[in-house]
Each structure stands twice: as structure tokens, then as C-alpha cells.
Amino acid sequence: MRITTSALIRNYKSNLNKSIGNLDTARTKVMTHRKFNKGFEDPTGVVRESALNWKYARNQDYIDAIDDAQSFQNAQEDAITQINTQARYLSKQYGLEAMNGTNWTYDVRKTYAQAFRQAQESMTMSMNASYGDKFVFGGAAGGQPPFELRTEADGTKTLLYRGLDVNHPDAQDDLSKMANEQVFTDLGFGLTMEGNNVVNSSAFNTSLPGINVVGYGVDDNGNSKNLISLAGEIADVLDQEDFDEAKYKELLNAFDDARGLLADNLTTIGTRTNFLENTKDRLEDQQINLTEQYDNVVNVDMAEAITEFSWAQYAYNAALKIGTNILSPSFIDFMS
Questions:
Q1: Which fold has domain 50-293?
Q2: pLDDT of residue 184 exceeding 70
Q3: Which has more confidence, 29 or 86?
């Protein structure tokens, strides 16, 4: 078979272009650290990369949601802790001092009454604590301050929760419904709906209605079960010139019972916090696994990529040197 000069040059140019292409591909891998940069280079890898990116982004959303839920709970815990500290001091310090015979004078009792009324105002403000644009004890209606301490025409104070008197018998059914309100956040448990309701086990409940924290309704003696209302009732008894010691002790006992709700809710928040921390640890482990999978699918082994580039560079340089010798001497070169 006769090999012409034009055929030799044509084959050389074709092979040289391949060397240039291989060199460019190897150089691109080293610069981008990626196994592929165009879809046709690895269609399967492109599909897997897209799926991993989606899983990673969704997993990060769940982690962010946990951080937000934890901050929301921290605001709840801070408010309850503040009220609990204040209520304990009222009960153990002022409460016992007021029962001391030397403190039964009207002027001294008025001082204690003022302390209870100031605490009543302070606890109301604490129960209206907010996180961002949400009130943390508002239940399903977190956009408005849940509690209001309204001053009546006769000067007495009435505590309202979302517009309802916490002690009024006609409001108890509505308050009970509000006490059971739930607000769910999707944390990656496979959010499931049954009709219009979220399946409890498939999402995390961030709601802690304030009426559950400080109580509502009245006991068998007609005393409020609400911690804030009781502070006002105790102040009213202390303010009377004819001090009713029996009633005072009765209210103080009711106040201590209501204070027990605070401890129960702090325990609930602690349990939720542990759950969130464990869930976040699991999601962060999953994030690491997704990162490793992405690295295996998309990113190159740099040692291997640099070796491949060096070899492509060597092959290209060799091809250039061969090009200088591709035309052999002809008969004309020997003519004088």
C-alpha cells in the first residue's frame, strides 16, 4: 500500500488534535477538581450529582430548622426560668415573711402587696416574650401578644389569654382547646398528613401555649389556678386592713401548686432540647455522608489528575517533536 505525504500529514494532524484535546481535558480536571464538566462526559454522574445536591440542600434546611426551633425553645426556657425564679422568691421570701407576726402591720403588708403586684406585671411581660416576629407562648396565634393584664373600672386586674379571662367559667372550654394547640416543623421525619392534620410522629411540635405554663381555671375553693392571677389575689388580701391569714395561706398554697407547672414545663423543654440535639447530630452525620458521596461522584483524585495531566503534556510535546521529522528527504533534495 502506497502511503502518500498528504495522507501522512492528515493522520498526523488528526492525532495531534487528539493530543491537544486530551491535554485540555486533563488540564480542566486539574483546574476545576471535577471529573466532568459537561453532561455528555458522564451522564450518570450528572444525574447522581443533581440528586446529591438536592439531598444535601434539603438536609441543610432541616438542620437550619432545628437551629431555629432550638432558639425558639431557648426563648421559652429563659422566660419560664425568669418567672420561676421570681415566683420562688415571692413564695419563700415575701410569702413567709408576710406570715411573720411582726410583719402583720398594715403598712408592712402594703409593701408586700406592692411587691406581688409588680411581680404580676413582670410575669405578664415575660409571658409575652417573643422570638423574631413570633410570641413564643402564643400557641397557634403567635403573631399577637398572648397575655393582657387588664385594669377594670374598680381597679382590679383581670388576666386575659388571647382575649379570654383565664378564670371565667364560660372561657374554660376555649382555653382548653388553646392549651392543646400544636405548631409543627418538618425536621425530616417524613411529614405525613391525615386529612388536614399532621401526624404527630412525622413532625416536631414547637408550640407551648402560655396558658399551659401559668395555668387557667379555678380550684375547688374558688381560687385561681393561674400563677399570675394568684399573685394579684394575694396582693389584694395583703392590702386589706383586716388581714385574713387563713385566706392568705390558702392562696399561697395555691400559688405554690401553680408554680409546679413551671417546673413541669421546664422538664418538657429539656426533653425537647435533647431530642433536637440528637436529631441534629444525626442530620450532621448524614451531611458528612452526603459530602463523601458527592466527593466520590464529582471530585477528582488530585494526585491521579496531576499524573494524567503530566502524561498528556508529555504526549503532546512528543507529538510536536515528531512533527518536525514527518517529511522525509525526497529525490529533489539530492539534485544539484
A1: f41 fragment of flagellin, N-terminal domain (1.20.1330)
A2: yes
A3: 86
